[in-house]
Write a structure and sequence with these properties.
The protein is α/β, with parallel strands linked by helices and 192 residues long. It is built from six helices and five strands. A hairpin with a 4-residue loop joins strand 2 and strand 3.
Length: 192
């Protein structure tokens, strides 16, 4: 099982050199900055194994999603028969994105190894990749990163450290919790 999500990141450079760290005083920086564009982060998290991988793209388009799914199948898990992918209902997250950019034959090859599991609308928090994105934001992205090279360097270091620790996500949301929270959307008894 792999949880998948994305995040947009601004590349921001200092206009003046920040004042250095002193005992009892944090680094001080000017409020003005230079905006150097944005990058998209695709995050793959295997919560039970404590593994994650981040891909950086210039944008978040159908094409980028299609290439990310092919990367998941062919590079990350080339020997897996089936990969369960938990993802939200974003307009790019579907089979048609793969068909549009790879053609039906290649899209079918990729999809034979993927099973998409979409989070309910307004409940993307059920995707554990959201938790990992929050950790990533706090541990790695909470300062100005001026260039793509700096961003990628920081992401590689963060990813390596988290993977070396085999950091897993402790998920406490149970099936009973889900039945209670979503009872009006998902009835517990079926009548045919």
């Amino acid at each position: 099982m792999v949880c998948f999500d994305e995040k947009s990141v601004q590349l921001l450079a200092h206009l003046t050199v920040p004042l250095p760290l002193k005992p009892g005083q944090p680094v001080r920086q000017d409020y003005e900055y230079k905006r150097n564009g944005t990058r998209n982060l695709f995050l793959f998290v295997e919560p039970k194994a404590g593994a994650r991988q981040v891909l950086v793209t210039n944008r978040r388009t159908k094409r980028d999603f299609a290439f990310a799914m092919r990367y998941l199948v062919d590079v990350m898990y080339p020997d897996a028969e089936c990969i369960d992918v938990v993802l939200d209902n974003l307009n790019t997250h579907h089979y048609h994105s793969l068909v549009e950019f790879f053609g039906k034959q290649e899209a079918d090859r990729i999809m034979r190894r993927l099973e998409f599991h979409y989070t309910p609308e307004h409940a993307s928090w059920l995707n554990m990749a959201e938790i990992e994105l929050s950790i990533l934001s706090k541990q790695c992205l909470s300062r100005r990163l001026p260039h793509e090279w700096t961003l990628i360097t920081e992401l590689v270091a963060w990813e390596a450290a988290r993977n070396a620790k085999n950091a897993k996500i402790r998920w406490n949301f149970t099936v009973d919790d889900a039945r209670n929270v979503f009872k009006e959307h998902y009835p517990t008894s079926l009548t045919c």
